[in-house]
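Discussion board: Methods & Data

I've been asked by a reviewer to show the raw model output for two of the constructs in my manuscript, not just the figures. I'm not sure how much to include, so I'm pasting the format here to get opinions. Each protein appears as its amino acid sequence followed by a line of discrete structure tokens. Is this the kind of thing reviewers expect to see in a supplement, or should I convert it first? Here is construct A:
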Amino acid sequence: MSVAIRLSRGGAKKRPYYKVVVSNSRAPRDGKYLEQVGTYNPLLAKDDENRVRLNEDRVRYWLGVGAQPTDRVARMLDKAGIMERAATNNPKKGEPGDKAKERAEEKAEKLREAEEAAKAAAEAPAEEAPAAEEAPAAEATEEQTEG
């Protein structure tokens, strides 16, 4: 049987309160557990001493017999000085997802096409400008002959 030290949720809706429990890793989150070894109240201030309460002797015993803490509990144990937790590095944390990358590429491509079209439009009227000046002069002569 693999044993885990994890959080078991209690409390009302939108008012969480957790027990730090030792349980069979296959048991449901809020189901039967072997022993309660502490509490965690996330609603209290971070510097409050009652936010995380652990029975250090029992936690050390369960760690000694092979219990594996979850990531969140390992953070609490590290802060309490019971167990050393290696720092993790996630280089992809700030990187956008695949769909966001695709959207950014499409947007950049559309921007490039718009710039190229604007550049081509800026060059084309410069060549057509003399022809455009001749057209109003021709219209003016037509109006004079009609009138």
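Construct B, same format:
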Amino acid sequence: MLWLAAYIGSVLAINYAFSLAPHLDLVWSCWAGLIFILRDMVQVRYGHWSLAAMLVATLLSFLLADPFVATASVTAFAVSELIDWGVFTVTRRPLRDRLWISAALSVPVDTALFFGMLGIWDPTVWAASLASKLAGVSAVWMLMRARSARPATA
């Protein structure tokens, strides 16, 4: 339940924050990396029900955030979520690999759709968004890889 609450709360909070202070788009772009990790953990825990979590987060965003920001967010998340879902459904690789592959495919699409719909073309913001999202999932991948490489204790 913790992953679910953290995911929905983060989507809502970032959309609300972006609506209140769009000039801090670089800050919000870095925060977005966490949401991708949370989304993947919700999908691992709840499977296809992760789409329901996305719908709840979207509806709350529409109620509390700027509808223009919420529309860009839901469009980007919907497309990236479908990419993510496809990777998790089709790929039978270890979880850590599915997390990284899904991010490598969905993060650029999410970034382009979100900022493109908002008319934000600043390469610094785009680079920060891409880097934070990929860095976050890469850190999780490395931790999971190191954990699986540890010898079992008797």
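Answer (T.O., handling editor elsewhere):
This is acceptable in a supplement if you add a one-line summary per construct. For B, something like: The helical segments are 2-20, 25-46, 50-64, 67-90, 95-118, 123-149.
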